[in-house]
Amino acid sequence: MSLPRPRILLAILVLTCAGAATAALLPPRPGGGTAPPLLPNDVYVWQRAWTPALGLAMDQAAPDVAAWRVLAAEVAPDGRTAPVLLNDGRLESVRAHLAGRPVTLVVRIDGRLSDAEPAALVETALAPLRRWRQAGVAVAGLEIDHDCPTARLPFYARFLAALRTGLRQEAGDIHLSITALPTWLNAPALPAHGLNDVVAIPDEVVLQVHAVAAPTDGLFNPAQAARWVAAWAERFPTPFRVALPDYGARVSWNADDSLATVEGEAPLLAGGAHARELMARPADVANFLKTLRLQAPANLKGIAWFRLPTADDRRAWSLATWAIVARGGTPTGRLTAMAEATATPALYTLTLANDGDADADLPAGLDLPAACPLGDGANGYARDPLASRLARQTPGLLPPGARRVVGWLRCSDSPSPPVIHVRP
């Protein structure tokens, strides 16, 4: 779950007020009823830098989190370990926000890494485990996030077997998990040390069902995800979790359809010939999760959310929206569109506002009144040349309590602002 790669993934706040702020920002938990039990929620902390907003988000999310899965190191295609700022002398700060939850360290290994002797890679994977434990963090598990091509599964099996041995020698009962791609389900029968070995070696597998298709196919398809989960549970007995998205991304690709960039939390200066904004809709994920709870396979152990939403992450859901979905609810924003008068007579600003308690989908369009012949869009909206309306250019969410100016209108004189109609 790193960026960029073929499987695309992903205001200074006063931390001393985090406890009081939690109750105000997050919705109440649903209670009672005969609904199936909630699935435990693990959350990936994938940010490269430790910020006040990240610490606050961890404090606020903690009541709904069963365990943290924290990015600890990244291995580049040439085998070198890329720095992760979260580990750079800040483990004391990290420890203060772990809230007593189990911690799994995640080592991201680039899928383009060439075959090598497993011993060096094992040492690379064990290094962050030693560093965190020396800093006093009780690490419960180690996870390998590697988008392994099917043809290289034999090498991956050898590496995991060596890593399992190294973990036993290094840390005794440390839990080993890996991420898995649904494309592995289509792998042909392999010789020894193939797919079955890869899935059997770890204690647990995290099945990716988001950002595993071409960018043009979107970020998350609930129907396809359900098929993958059912097929995986039937084929493999190893306990597994399902990785679900709570984010959006801007994806660009080159003229030859190869992936160029994936822009998540931070803006990128480069891009390809084509680009598209993708978004995992909270309602889609919520409905998928409700169905999954009703039909949960016996070896399904929970959900692993990518990634922890923070106030700095402009493409993630709001934390309040994530909490509603994680608790089994369906978030509903309350979106209104209005024409607001300006200092210039007959000139209005078009504004969207969300006064609900969860993110609201940006509407597909805004119908403009006939009395307003002049106008244009802004901030993701443009005037439809064939109709009196503004059309959304890219999908997105408007957080609770937020406002967005999306255009302007010039109308004939009227005693009151014109009425704007929203197209879902």
UniProtKB/TrEMBL annotation:
InterPro entries hit by this protein: DUF3142
Keyword annotations from UniProtKB, A to Z: Signal
Source organism phylogeny: Bacteria, Pseudomonadati, Pseudomonadota, Alphaproteobacteria, Rhodospirillales
Signal peptide: 1-23
Keyword Signal appears in the UniProt entry: yes
One Pfam family per UniProt: DUF3142
Name of the molecule in the record: DUF3142 domain-containing protein
